[in-house]
Design a protein that fits this description.
Structural class: mainly alpha
Number of domains: 1
Largest sheet: none
Number of helices: 13
CATH class: Mainly Alpha
Low-confidence stretches: 97-101
CATH superfamily: ABC transporter involved in vitamin B12 uptake, BtuC
Mean pLDDT: 84
Helix content: over 70%
CATH topology: ABC transporter involved in vitamin B12 uptake, BtuC
């Protein structure tokens, strides 16, 4: 990207957008980044609501281990990434209907996954050399500007599937998240809904890895949702606000990276973090002024 002739930013925003989208890598980035952002915002709202941030972080680490496992055994890393992550999500769903009450089990899985990842990385690096040895870094940090068309299409398709699946269970999932006992008494299959949701979380995390990596996944999944929870009290308003914020962070991050050549993941996580800090400070100032 740095060797390309990037046109300067101008006051003509329409022309700027045309210039930016004239590059294949930017079109692929927006193709993948748009559904990825919406998915992260929607899924992230329920992750925060259900206090599943720890379990989500565990699944993010699983993606790295799954991809390395597939590579070590000579398979497609994407198969390992999706397959192992969904398998662990299913395991966490079976452990309990609400994983936040199972911190010990989740922590045990995380410790084992990290240890297994370290072993697989050691095996892989001892067998590889040159450019091939960078796959571990690629899956840890991702590269949304380095996606090929097939990868971008895969992210987009999986994103649409997760969005549709989540919207189909949104109402019963919300009910089960707010009061699982009452929801069960009303006939909602709370355990099944919880397992389905964790599988959707696994899909959303796995699809994001090629773009933002395993380590930076949580920034896009958790922070916009945390902001939305602070700004909106009505559940579905907060749900779509979370998706809108996530989309804004991705689009703005991609645009800034195009002109300033900073890492996109850094820009997205920084935009999200600064927005969260600004909201927290603003709410505390308002609360102080109100109390006076």
């Amino acid at each position: 990207m740095f060797l390309l002739d990037i046109p300067p930013f101008s006051p003509n925003l329409i022309q700027d957008v045309r210039d930016m989208l004239s590059f294949d890598f930017m079109r692929y980035a927006f193709l993948a980044g748009t559904p990825l952002a919406i998915v992260s915002g929607l899924v992230g709202y329920f992750v925060v609501l259900r206090n599943l941030v720890f379990a989500t972080d565990t699944l993010a680490h699983v993606t790295f281990t799954g991809a390395l496992f597939a590579v070590v055994v000579g398979s497609n890393p994407m198969l390992g990434l999706f397959g192992v992550t969904m398998l662990v999500a299913l395991l966490l769903g079976v452990v309990g209907t609400r994983a936040q009450s199972k911190d010990v089990e989740v922590g045990t899985v995380l410790a084992w996954v990290l240890g297994l990842g370290a072993l697989l990385l050691s095996i892989y690096t001892s067998q590889s050399s040159g450019a091939n040895s960078t796959i571990g870094v690629n899956y840890l940090f991702g590269s949304i500007l380095g996606l090929q068309l097939e990868q971008a299409q895969l992210v987009a398709v999986v994103g649409v599937v997760v969005i549709v699946g989540l919207l189909l269970i949104a109402r019963p999932l919300l009910f089960a998240s707010l009061d699982s006992e009452v929801a069960a008494a009303r006939g909602i299959p709370v355990r099944t809904i919880s397992v389905i949701f964790l599988l959707l979380v696994a899909l959303s995390i796995a699809e994001a890895v090629p773009a933002v990596g395993a380590l930076l996944n949580s920034a896009l999944l958790v922070t916009p949702a945390a902001i939305a929870h602070r700004l909106a009290t009505r559940p579905f308003v907060a749900l779509f606000l979370s998706a809108g914020l996530s989309l804004a962070f991705v689009w703005v991050g991609l645009t800034i990276s195009f002109y300033a050549s900073y890492p996109v993941s850094f820009l997205i996580s920084t935009l999200a973090f600064l927005t969260y800090v600004t909201v927290v400070i603003w709410q505390r100032v308002c609360a102080t002024n109100f109390s006076e």
